[in-house]
Amino acid sequence: MKKIFAATAALTALLSLTACKSEKKADSAKAGKVLNIYVWNEEFQDRFNTYYASKLPSDVKVNWIVTPCQDNAYQNKLDEALMRQDSLPLDEKIDLFLVEADYALKYVDTDFTLDVIKDLGITQEDIKNQYKYTKDIMTDKKGNLKGLTWQACPGGFIYRRSIAKDVLGTDAPEEVGKALSDWNKFNDVAKEAKKKGYFMLSGYDDAFRAFSDNMTKPWVVDNKITIDPQIESWIAQTKEFADKGYNNKASLWSPESTQGMGKKGKVFGYFGPAWFIDFVMAPGSLDDQKAPRTLGNGSYGDWAFCKGPQGFSWGGTWICGARGSDNIDIIRDVLKTLTCDEEVMTEIAKKSGDFTNNIPAMEAVAASDYQNPFLGGQNHIRFFLDSATSIDKSCITQYDQGMAEKIQASMKDYFDGKVSLEKAWSNFYTTIQELYPRLQK
Predict the structure, then answer these.
(1) Are 116 and 143 in contact (CB under 8 A)?
(2) What is the DSSP string of 249-316?
(3) How high is the pLDDT of residue 70?
(4) Is it the case that residue 22 has pLDDT exceeding 70?
(5) Do residues 402 and 5 lie in contact, with contact meaning Cβ atoms separated by under 8 Å?
(6) What pLDDT sits at residue 291?
């Protein structure tokens, strides 16, 4: 899920080409024999193969084009293919591709994405139970819905039970949640954790999304860069944590960050949504990757979840149909099955712990006897419910991914004590204006 920003030149080319394209209605009469799906990892492959592949016509082959996100490789390859879409043979045309929240608008506001309602024939009734924000993100300036997702991504604090017991005297989610219910309390616990030899957080990026997702103004207003107070609060807290030894000075996705999840790790907890638990922390906790995921294999099962100081969301993967596809009927069925089917949404949640994009399904799982083994048998879904309904993405812009990555990169030297705060800000503005020449400080 983690990403490096799309180059401005590629975005400009994509949008300018779109402006020249004529409006074409999707043709559901054609039926292709190859379904080309562009992805960056195996997450959607797993969902597709488990919950949809058996429904495919026997004469249709799925061609997965997998390109990692590193160095923007995924978006670059996707952009190149989209710009050649009209000239490609039918069996080579993109049918489905995935996007993430940080750069979704880059594709939403183009003609390369099919309209879910008008082009694919999915109805408002079909999507009535999906969380509003997941649809808002994929709605273009004209009000057209351009993609759907199987997941909603409210986040919270995933903490180590044994460490919580040592520091707070309890590992119960309700009690730990009270102890961490605002940032002042969170900082006080960090101080106590340090005394016991623990790190409250793994590193510099851990709390970033908990702050940035609570911004009340966008990164860019009228081509001018704006800095929300939440970003300033993240910088101040992270510098304090680094100076006082409350974090382990690791970077998110680094080996050092993952090591903190293991049995010998000393990290109190990590901020993240359900996908972070399933795809990052659960495997990161294991001593033996080939052995069953059970209590006793590393720190697996020694974790729990609470809301933390403030609610937030992070990430999400949306499925888009590509204009020009000759597999319209299959695209429609994929979206209906993997994002609208309450039974499928329930099964995904119970099997993987993912918080899925269906309100009745999540309410039912939250009220059930479901237990997440990684979280020591906790039913964490109920802790997500309030956050999921309150997520607001009105501040989202096409610049979000670049801003998020550049502010974290620029501040790292400041957190490490290599540059002053003033110099870190100067470096941020320089890199941003190189990336987006039109923007003003």
Answers:
(1) no
(2) EEPTTSHHHHHTTSTT--B-EEEEEHHHIIIIIHHHT-S-TTS-S-TTSTTTT-EEEE--SS-EE---
(3) 87
(4) no
(5) yes
(6) 94
Instruction: Specify the 3-state DSSP secondary structure of 224.
Output: strand
Cβ(383)–Cβ(416) under 8 Å? no
Task: Return the closest-CA partner of residue 35 out of 318, 328, 344, 319.
Answer: 328
Do β-strands 154-160 and 269-273 pair in parallel, antiparallel, or remain unpaired? antiparallel
Q: What is the pLDDT of residue 294?
A: 94
Whether the predicted pLDDT of 262 surpasses 50: yes
Structure tokens at 241: 């944590």
Gap between the Cα atoms of 318 and 116, Å rounded: 12
How far apart are the C-alpha atoms of 310 and 387, rounded to whole Å? 9
Copy the structure tokens of residue 220.
């860019």
Q: What's the average model confidence in pLDDT over 67-80?
A: 94
| CB neighbour list of residue 397: distance below 8 Å, 6 or more residues apart | 105, 218, 219, 220
Listed in sequence order, the DSSP H helices in 213-254 are: 229-244
Q: How many Cβ atoms sit within 10 Å of the Cβ of residue 389?
A: 14
Cβ burial, residue 69 (10 Å; 0-12/13-18/19+):
middle
Structure token digits, residue 33: 């024999």
* pLDDT score recorded for residue 30: 55
Location of structure tokens 């009469």: 29
What φ, ψ does residue 267 adopt, rounded to 5°? -90, 125
Q: Are 379 and 372 in contact (CB under 8 A)?
A: yes
CB atoms within 10 A of CB 141: 8
Q: What is the pTM of this model?
A: 0.87
Nearest to 279 by CA among 310, 253, 301: 253
In the predicted model, what is the mean pLDDT of residues 110-119?
Answer: 97
- Quick one: pLDDT at residue 9? 44
Higher-confidence position of 384 and 35: 35
Residue 368's contacts (CB-CB under 8 Å, 6 or more residues apart) are 379
Rg over CA atoms, the chain: 22
Distances (CA, A) of 240 to 203, 237, 249, 431, 439: 12, 5, 12, 25, 31
Q: How far apart are CA 146 and CA 191, in angstroms?
A: 46
Residues with Cβ within 8 Å of 135's Cβ and at least 6 positions away in sequence, in order, are 127, 145, 148
299 alpha carbon, distance to own chain's centre: 24
